[in-house]
Amino acid sequence: MRTERKLTRLDRVFARLDREPERPAHIDVPRMSRHRVVLFASTLAFYAAIVWAVVITSWLVRLDWQVMFFRPYQQWPEIHAFLDYYVVLGQRGPTAVMIAAWLGWRSWRQHTLRPLLTLGASLLLLNITVGAAKISMGRLGPHYATGVGSNEMWLGGDIFPSGHTANAVVTWGILAYLASTPRARRWLSAFSAVVSLGVGLTTVYLGTHWLSDVVLGWAAGLLILLALPWCEPLIARAESGIFDLRDAWRDRRRGAAPAGPAEVPAPAALAPIGKPAAGEQEPVVREPVAASRPARAPGYLAPGPHLSRSERTPVTPLGSRRPPQSDRVTRGTASARPLAGG
Fold it and tell me: If exposure means fewest CB atoms within 10 Å of the residue's CB, which of 140, 218, 252, 298 is most exposed?
């Protein structure tokens, strides 16, 4: 008895992808709804509040120093080796390559450039906003602190906000942003939140960032994800422009392809025989140039003047057309052979 193999979850995922040879129609582009605008405004206010709390050296700065003196990497040294690898999930280079590979395959399957263009737009916003904040505030990290209890601002540093944390929020959160179903969006949102939370706390454990750096990094990454719907019209125009350039390039290649065999020109119409019109010269008739091969001997021409059919002398071919036969006997003569039995 033949039994069918039970499909695993991975088989069902690939079977679902095989049913999507082109961009699915049920994928909705996120809009800047009122709920999203409220979240964006609230996150922006929280971002400004964290910056202000650090600038005025409030209780948040004192908490930063307390965590730094606690030295978590000395309290739990057994997880140090694991967290050294785990923090790579927040580095821009490796995470961008992994996410771009997945989104590139998805773009190829769905015949759309939107996933890759959205990733590019989010990373561009990340580099501009977080990079500008780092340079403008110039905060030093815990390993380079100069005075106990100070906020270490405008001293040439580049750790505020945390780039690892903001990058983890954006690169892993873009998967949830581009999810095709509400269920996938919920699961991917929870996954990206856990990863970005772990990356931020890992940098605090390793002593490379203040706790306020991590909190501001979470807010910076969330602001970019919430602002992405404003970039959707530009992403759509960029995708349309790229496809137009591709079509124009293909048309140019087809036009530059080698042409087929040349067409034979139609013969020119012969002018009617008669007197040339006024102002025209009589065409000069040239004799054709003899070919290089020798001319045939005119042996087939009948000598003398042309005669009618009744006046022509019949021509008898020389010799017989029949093959010679030595044993043929002329009709009416006795055979030279002896009779049988004679």
Answer: 298
**How far is 336 from 322, CA to CA, in rounded Å?**
22
* Residue 279 one-letter amino acid: G
Longest pairwise C-alpha distance within the chain: 156
d(CA 25, CA 180): 10
Q: How do residues 248-301 score in pLDDT, each as one tens digit?
A: 898 888 886 555 555 555 555 555 555 555 555 555 545 544 444 444 444 444
pLDDT digits (tens, 9 = 90+) for 39-58: 999 999 999 999 999 999 99
d(CA 204, CA 212): 10
3-state secondary structure the chain: CCCCCCCCHHHHHHHHHHCCCCCCCCCCCCCCCHHHHHHHHHHHHHHHHHHHHHHCCCHHHHHHHHHHHHCHHHHCHHHHHHHHHHHHHHCHHHHHHHHHHHHHHHHHHHCCCHHHHHHHHHHHHHHHHHHHHHHHHCCCCHHHCCCCCCCCCCCCCCCCCCHHHHHHHHHHHHHHHCCCCHHHHHHHHHHHHHHHHHHHHHHHHHCCCCHHHHHHHHHHHHHHHHHHHHHHHHHHHHHHHHHHHHHHHHHHHHHCCCCCCCCCCCCCCCCCCCCCCCCCCCCCCCCCCCCCCCCCCHHHCCCCCCCCHHHCCCCCCCCCCCCCCCCCCCCCCCCCCCCCCC
Per the confidence metrics, is the pTM higher than 0.70?
no
Structure tokens at 307: 């005669």
Residues 176/192, Cβ–Cβ less than 8 Å: yes
Phi, psi torsion values for 205, nearest 5 degrees: -60, -40
Q: Which of 222, 218, 216, 160 is closest to 48 using CA atoms?
A: 216
Contact 190, 173 (CB under 8 A): no
Q: Do residues 172 and 187 make contact, with C-beta atoms less than 8 angstroms apart?
A: no
Give the C-alpha separation, 263 to 269, whole Å: 18
